[in-house]
Design a protein that fits this description.
The complex is a heterodimer of chains A (89) and B (211). With 89 residues, chain A is mainly alpha-helical. Helices cover 61% and strands 0% of the residues of chain A. In chain A, α1 packs antiparallel against α3. The model of chain A has no long low-confidence stretch (mean pLDDT 88). With 211 residues, chain B is α/β, with parallel strands linked by helices. Chain B has two domains: 146 residues, Rossmann fold; 55 residues, no CATH class. Chain B is built from seven helices and eight strands; from the N terminus they run ββαβαββααββαβαα. The longest helix of chain B is centred in the first third of the chain and has 19 residues. The two termini of chain B are 26 Å apart. At the A-B interface, α1 and α3 of A face α3 of B.
Chain lengths: 89, 211
């Protein structure tokens, strides 16, 4: 498996852990699936948990001012953000 | 010590486990999980006590008067009151548990990480409301004057304490989520319980407990 596919799997599993989506909903996420604003589970507290877990599991640091609509808008957008952070964009 | 509520399974047995809960919202999220773990431990012949941290859960004390020191003092007093032989500290509980007892720490977390997440939630909520706040400014304000975070009024001492605190474990065995299987229950706003995780944790503790 490539690292890129690993990120995809790891992010699904992370979203499942933080939001309790269930394996089926987590697997069904596509690049265009809406996150912030689309998932009722994702309030500001959940976003804070999500960012902390992303930092932890992907070994990156996210600044407050990097957190915006674009980054959290879709599953694909968040994945791209993490890849860019890891220098894989 | 001031009277605090505790969930107690006490039949005067040899192994007496003090359970030190996580801090803030993670305490509520893991409560059913921990009480279910206590129930399984009871069946395995182990006594256990899960006391409230002062200012939390059923406690009548003011949250705003608490600090890591007051929680450490309370947990030390609880260990002595219940004659605990072992300790299980969970997540942020690892910042305040009585370190002289043998036992286990479950997924320890640094105080600064807890604080960062609380600050971040506040900054995000402010942003949604159209206001700009910065974690760095809030932290500075909190260290000097205390701070309202996620519905908790943190004293200046608690903010400063958290910012500096690292897990206190000294020889206690570290248990990881992967040892329990499943998803970490403290991450979710509505975690419910996971009987399999409680059973796994209880079995692990029971297998390693000795007096």
């Amino acid at each position: 498996m490539t690292q890129t596919a690993d990120f995809d799997t790891a992010l699904r599993s992370l979203l499942n852990d933080v939001l309790g989506l269930g394996a089926a909903r987590a697997e069904a996420l596509t690049a265009d699936s809406g996150l912030f604003g689309a998932l009722p589970e994702l309030d500001s507290m959940a976003v804070a948990s999500l960012l902390t877990e992303i930092e932890d599991r992907f070994d990156v640091v996210i600044d407050d001012d990097e957190v915006d609509g674009d980054m959290l808008d879709t599953f694909g957008g968040l994945l791209a953000f993490i890849r860019a952070k890891r220098g894989e964009a | 010590m001031a009277d605090e509520h505790a969930v107690v399974f006490d039949r005067g047995r040899q192994v007496r486990l003090l359970v030190v809960p996580p801090l803030f919202e993670e305490m509520n999220r893991t409560r059913r999980f921990l009480v279910e773990t206590q129930r399984v431990l009871d069946g395995l012949g182990i006594d256990s006590m899960l006391p409230d941290l002062p200012g939390c859960n059923e406690s009548l004390q003011a949250f705003s008067a608490q600090s890591l020191r007051s929680w450490r003092d309370a947990m030390a007093a609880a260990a002595s009151h219940f004659a605990a032989t072992h300790v299980l500290a969970v997540r942020g509980g690892v910042l305040v548990f009585p370190t002289s007892l043998p036992g286990w720490v479950l997924e320890p977390v640094k105080g600064a990480a807890i604080l960062r997440q609380l600050l971040r939630a506040r900054v995000l909520a402010a942003k949604e409301a159209g206001a700009a706040e910065s974690s760095a400014d809030l932290l500075e304000e909190g260290r000097n004057h205390g701070l309202e975070l996620a519905g908790y009024r943190l004293s200046a001492a608690l903010v400063a304490g958290l910012d500096a605190a690292i897990p206190q474990d000294e020889g206690q065995r570290v248990i990881r989520q992967s040892d329990l299987g499943g998803s970490p229950l403290w991450l979710r706003s509505e975690p419910g319980e996971d009987a399999a995780q409680s059973a796994a944790l209880a079995r692990l503790v029971a297998a390693e407990a000795s007096v």
